[in-house]
Predict the structure.
Amino acid sequence: MEQLWAAPTALTVREVHEQLAGTRELAYTTVMTVLDRLAKKKLTERERDGKAWRYRAAAPREELAADLMRDALDRAGDRREALVRFVGQVSDEEAALLREALSRLDSQEQTG
Amino acid sequence: MEQLWAAPTALTVREVHEQLAGTRELAYTTVMTVLDRLAKKKLTERERDGKAWRYRAAAPREELAADLMRDALDRAGDRREALVRFVGQVSDEEAALLREALSRLDSQEQTG
DNA sequence: TAACATCTACTACGAAACGTCGTAGATGGC
DNA sequence: GCCATCTACGACGTTTCGTAGTAGATGTTA
């Protein structure tokens, strides 16, 4: 349902609909409704283009994932404990990525 | 709704209900239903105690938070990017906790 | 300007989840 | 046997989601 991230630019309902046509048989208005609801939830933004609306993801899906991770962490009670458990669940590869991200953060802080 | 984590041990419906009585006016059966639904979702476990059931959280809330963080990460597409963004959102304190958790992971790997 | 295509706004409907609760029946103590 | 207690199951309103139809506005074109 959220293959809007796949597209590089803002799309009209029609474009999304056509793009989906290969995969799923959905009514034009279905796509419209979904896009509209996503906009109401601030997950997409829209701008006028003639009489049509052009939709674009409000944030890349990675940002959304990061937000969800934050939300989860915020509901944790003891954040240290939650982070320890999270790190414990993560694959070696992901742990490495995390370290990398953290050190990137370091240099950012020093520079800016 | 999920103040079961607050309690140290397994509780009966009655106990949870009484414990909640100060904060919220809920029918006994409401508490029962909620506990039962949580059990169906494997968020609580229950064991017999006489004719009553005794419920306990299946995992500490920190574990649940960690699980949710994992889920979010899994839906990210580019996990590196998601982790970078997550780390970027996190407070300094949390970043420190993360580093700590990661180094704890290191020593664990060496030892066990 | 009238006819037509296109697009939106609004409404709807079924399914699932959730918060809330009641009734009926099983169980156990006195 | 009677009474309190506890569960099982069903129920109802609300929200979210996937799906779609209808009505009406707008732009195009002859």
